[in-house]
Every structure is written in C-alpha cells, then in structure tokens.
Amino acid sequence: MTASIRAGESDFAAGFEGLSTSYAVVRADALSGAVLDRGGRVLRATSTFAADLGLDAGAPSIFDIGFDPDGPTIQLVHPSMAGVLSGLAVTTPAGAAGWKLPPEVAAAVGLPGAAFVALTATPASTGAGFLQACAAFGLTPSQTRVARSALLTGNIRRTATDLGIGYDSAREAIIGAMRKVGVRKLPALIERLVRLSFGVWPTGDLGKAILLDCWGLTLRQATVALRVAEGMGRSETAAAIGVSDATVKAEMKVVFEVMGVQSAAGLTRVVIEAQILGLLTDATGTTSIAEAEHPEPLALARRGDDTLVAYSDYGPRSGAPVFVLHTSSACRFVPGVLVGALHAQGFRPISIDRPGFGLTDPPRDPAGWREDPFAAAAADMRLIADTLRLERVDLLCRGGAQVAVATHRLMPERLGRVVLINPDPPTDDRLYRGPVGAVAALFFRQPALIERVAGALSHWLGRGLGRQILQHAVADNPSDRALMADPRHLADYERGFRPFTTGQIGGYVTEQTAMTRWSSPPLAGVERWRVIQGETDWLATPGAVEAFWRGRLPGAGFRIVPGGGRFLVLSHPALIAEALRAAPAPARADGPASA
Q: What is the distance between the alpha carbons of residues 362 and 32, in angstroms, rounded to a whole number?
C-alpha cells in the first residue's frame, strides 16, 4: 500500500474494499462462562451463565438446549428464557488458552473432570455491562427493569404482562427511558443500550457484513436492516441512503420475511443476536488481550441537539481536573500507566470521545462539524466542564493539538495548564516520514481519498493485521519496539483504537480532512503550555514539528525526551504527569477547580 501511494497510484486499496466480519474485543463483563464436564454439566460458572442460556433444573446440560458438541465451535442457541438467542462457544480446556475468559472461569479451567469451557454473550444479560449502560443514561431501577424486558419481548404490552404491571405503567417507563436516552422509538432504545453494554459496536460496512454472511441479504437490504434496527423510520432510512420510500418499504418486506420478524423492534433484536456472534468470535480468537489495570468508567452528557457525548471520569473528585485528549485514530480510553501517574500527582483525569469517535455522536449539523471539527470538540469539552461543574481544567493532549488551540479560543478563562505530547502538525508531507508519511502526503495532495484510505486501514486492522502493521512501524525505534513487546502496553494501545477497527471512522475522516486546510496565527497567552516530543518519533520529524509549533505557540515551553519515541504516554508517564504539575498554574482566586 505504501509503495502504491508513493507512486501516486489511485488503486492502492484494490482487493481490500470487501466487507469484513472482524469485530473488536467485547468487554469482559459482558461475557458469561463456565467450565463443564463431559456431559455438558456445569462445574463452575459465572453468576449470569445459567440465566443467559435459560438453564434450569430441568436442563442441567448445555446439550439439552440444542448445542451440538460435534458441530461448529460457536453456535446460536435457543434458550427457554423468552425465546432470546444467545451466542455459545465451547471448546476443550486446551483450546481455551487463547480465549478471553471471565476471571472466575479462567481460574477453574484445571478443575478435575473439566472437559469443556463455554463462553456466552447475550443482549439480555443482567451483567454489569447492561446495568452500567442503563446507569450511564440515568435510568431508574423501574425503567431499567422495563427496558430489559422490552429487549426480551420487543413489545411494550408483552413487557407489561411479563412484569405483572399495567400497560400504562410499562409505557410510561419506556417513554421515560427513551427520553433519557434521546431516542423516539423502541428499536433505537434497544440498540443503544445493547451497544453501550458491549462497549464497542460494529457500524457502517463492518456492521453489514454479519447480515450478509448469516442471511444472504443484498448490500442495500443489509443497509436498510441496520438503519431500521438503529431506530430510523422508513422516510429517514430512504433519505439517509438516497432511495425512495417505496424502495425502502419493498426492501423491508424482504428483510422481515428472510429474518423471520414482524416488527422493527423484532428486527433490532435479531440484528443484535447476529452481531453478538461476531463479538463472541473475536473474544475466542487466538490473540490474548490483557485486562485493563483500572476500570473504564462510562458517563454520557447530552448536547443541546439531543446527541450524546461519551466521557470517562477516572476520579478522584478531589483531584485537579485534567482533560486527556485522544489521538486521531483512537478513542477516550487512557492507558493505565498514565492514569496511575496522573493520580500520583494529584490529578483527576477525564477523557472525552470527540465527535464521531468511540461512543460520541456526531453533531446534528454535519456541515458545521465537517467544516471545523476542532471547534465542535472544544464545544464538547465545555459541555463536560459545565456538566461536572468544573470552573477550570488542565489539558493533556496525546493528540488533538488543534483541539487544544480551539479550546483556548473558546474558553481561555477556564483553561489552565496545557501539555502537548508529540503534537501533530497539519497534513504536510514535508513534516512526516515513514509509512505514515506516505499516507500524510496522499492526504495533503488528495483529501478526497482520505475516507477510502481510512476504510482500507480499518479493514486491515479488523482482520487482525494491526499488530503486524504496528511492528513494521516501530521496527527501527528501540523504545517503541520494546513497549509494544510488553503485552500490558500493547493491550492498552489496542484498546484505544478498537472502535476504529469496527468501521467507526467518521471522526477520523472529518478531522484528517480538516487538517489538510488547518492553520493558526500565533496564539497569545500560552505561557502555561508545554510541548513534549520524543527524540526518535517515527511518525513525524521532531525538529520540523518543533519549528512549526514554536511559530504558533510563542511563549510555550518545549522539551525533547532523549530516546523517547511516539508512545511517550507509555514509556514516560511519570515525566508527563510531572511536567503538567510543574507548568505555571494560573491564579485561582475563585477556589479549587474540581467540583
């Protein structure tokens, strides 16, 4: 690909435009599992395993619910619990060596008599993932209970019957839940809660792939199915994909018949069940992903246009708040070593998914967002500062230096110390090097190809080639090569760009396109800013990058880290946290900045 780009060829992605069925690793707490004997009976299991599969005293063995131990490793099974399908994967204890298992299951693999290891994922799980998603939207216990039942039934009237409450009470709870989630239809409520339950959800082309594979739908039928499953009506779907209402109606009729459903809510449930297969497939891959060293909190704030902004507040509330910006292809997840270093210096790290990244919606004004995505990201940071009642925040940028500039312009009185780590200049082929430099040069010359390049990269990463690409990129950099050889650091790095591998490239494409035309006059009032660069950064030329930013940030402090590479947040977290603490702090006559 690099050679094709350097040669100026336009067909660099030939052979890679097809859809991929690879998915990002599902959250550990969204999975259930068990260790089984030769008869398929449970020896040790998570608390939710039996409920997920609908096992009861009359069906003590997984073989009793239709699982075929001689068939494919992963199957959809039909439990007795309201007819909800679950994905079930079974293998031998030796075969589970590369699986992502809940801790209590991993600890029981060596039990005497252990013959099988099972892993399940279901949208109806009562596990922490679903409850956290409901809590993030502020659903009450009664709204959570009704929402989960509606997921099982797809029908408010049946939900009321199953829960033993009146129809009006069930309807009122659902309407309240939809209002808090910011949707107007039951399918959209189901889709959004389940998406947040699993943490990462396939979208775009990658979301269509499993529908094509499972049901043989056409690409347009799969597109319609996903739009409807996300809560769009017929006219909205027609406008979104550029066809007539009549065409959508005809395609929906085929989709409903093929998938065996009678309503949009039923379609949503079946789509979710199918996508769970992809998530479960990824969780049972051969690559072992280390667990995070710290829990990943999730909270949501609502913009004035009813779209949502996702953020993580790592606490403690008594710490000095610092917004941690993610890189251009990652999302809000902050590496554990950096969280620990910031905590040690008395900070309260808070990270935000920028518009179109991770779990944050694009604004409802797509034209304005595409024109200036950095200003839109700055507006989201002001929203989170208002939501958390933060009078002043510091800023730590792992990327997104342009967002820092936009934030300074938007709310200079609320911005304290700022540290930029290996800040990216605009897309200029004279400042970048290596394979990424080739891509930057292409972006600079032909911005219209950015989306196609991003799609190809997402495809490759989704097919499990991310580590190979990364190894190639760091091959000549001893510091970063050693970091990526450490499973803990590698897992933290991969966790950050996980949504990108599921086809969530909208934010990346929008920001990279804007980078080709971004410029800034010298910025006043940046004496509290610090720029830290790795001496051997393999993405951009440190000297040229420093010269660029010195011209835009007169008065800022600059520092080169000897031997440091691209991943300074992993190799030098303490240095970064100390630099933030040591930067001159503004006078705080109005008291501490934390809530």
A: 33
